[in-house]
């Protein structure tokens, strides 16, 4: 364990971040690595409680409690405290294929359920995870490890987000030949086109893809499976197929004025901005917030990333609408430990908006009624309607000026086409119906599904978990198939 009584004697330090006033001037990551001495001190706060809820990874009251990939947190905390960094990395790599992504962008449900958090502040688990993986890369401990033997079995993974990458990594490790097909021109899924570079720099994604390639995984980009390659071709060439195609169907806001210029889906905006940075592609006027009054509709993480992106592009003002109320400052009685704490936080984009414009850009209990445009068909504003507020007050109708509006109201599950081609059944909310839980096999034999495509829009860490579990299911399936053939 860490230091005896460490959690009582040492104060929690949060993850090190660049100052908001500095980081808004560029597109580099806003989080930085905690210095060694500080990280070891923070690791000393782990009390080896005996029942480490931090690593359980279960769903309680519809929220995530503990780490979904069951990271061996108390073990690596102790190793870091003792300065055994390489051993700590080896423990971390046992359960997490991509700590460089989770340690930057995971909402850290582990910390919400840390036992120390029951009596004081939780251990800074995510900062410690980041320090371990950053050190592992810096020291050259993360090297390609191709499998020693090949099974001769071929698996196609469709989609190269964290679910597809984790699945491919696990299957390759046990010797199967894995080919990852990706519709976009670069692998990474939402890690590449979606999550902005302030959270995960694209060179970190490229670095991991490069390692996976050196380990023997084949990547085919700009291949839209179902269109550029038929389901029959896939079935003929591969022994198993895993669909990790994400939950890309976004929700629309079908209200008066939606057709006006200057109103765009958030994902189109974020993708265009990343492409502008990667390739210098020209930004369409609708995707350039410079000097504009921006309104983001939708109170979630995607909306937050739009706020941070608009700030970096030099917007004149930014407001974000959410339909729910402000979260309480402390846990409510209905949200006890070890559930994920549903409490108010000032996340990176909001901190930046406060620094620049002097206020939090979030507006609560807002319902957009209609968009208003000028004669040229460009949006000039919108009206928000009466909405029964959580505090019982009726919000009055209000007009808001806007030159640019981004719609970030969530996703509706996996795109239909490929699943229809495979004749795979989905439920009414767009999720893939599993033939046999937790086999990850769909209603079609030899075709599996994992990640957001299976569970609906979620988190990187859940996508990794799904990719790992689906890989184990595929391995078992191939093994059984092989045994039957040999009979
Ligand atoms: C803007 C935004 C910010 C986010 N921020 C965070 C965050 O900070 N922390 C966090 O934990 N999670 C975050 N998430 C959620 C997280 O990114 C997802 O849960 C995760 O990426 C899901 O992984 P996946 O592999 O299932 O799917 P995806 O990452 O969506 O990857 C699916 C891939 O499949 C490809 N594909 C689809 N159809 C085909 C086809 N027919 N042929 C070939 N390829 C195909 C797509 O092009 C895509 O690349 C964010 C999501 C968004 C949208
Ligand atoms: S992956 Fe997320 S939940 Fe797991 S230890 Fe890291 S920050 Fe915590």
Please write out the topology:
Layout lengths: L5 H4 L10 H4 L12 H8 L14 E3 L2 E3 L7 H9 L3 H11 L3 H7 L3 H4 L3 H4 L5 H15 L14 E5 L3 H12 L3 E5 L20 H13 L3 E3 L10 H7 L2 E4 L19 E3 H14 L13 E5 L3 H13 L3 E5 L26 H10 L4 E2 L4 E6 L5 E6 L2 E2 L5 E2 L2 E4 L2 E4 L8 H6 L25 E3 L2 H4 L4 H27 L1
Parallel strand pairs: 3-4, 3-6, 4-5, 6-17, 7-16, 8-9, 8-16, 9-10
Antiparallel strand pairs: 1-2, 11-12, 12-15, 13-14
Helix pairs in contact: 3-4, 3-9, 4-5, 4-9, 5-9, 6-9, 10-18, 13-14, 14-15
The structure holds flavin-adenine dinucleotide and iron/sulfur cluster (SF4).
Describe the structure.
By secondary structure, the chain is of the alpha/beta class. It folds into 3 domains: 6-139, Fumarate Reductase Iron-sulfur Protein, Chain B, domain 2 (Orthogonal Bundle), CATH 1.10.1060; 154-249 and 412-486, FAD/NAD(P)-binding domain; 263-407, FAD/NAD(P)-binding domain (3-Layer(bba) Sandwich), CATH 3.50.50.60. Helices cover 35% and strands 13% of the residues. The strands form 5 sheets. Strands 5-4-3-6-17 form a 5-stranded parallel beta sheet, with helices on both faces. The termini are far apart. The chain binds flavin-adenine dinucleotide and iron/sulfur cluster (SF4). Iron/sulfur cluster binds next to helix 7 and helix 9.
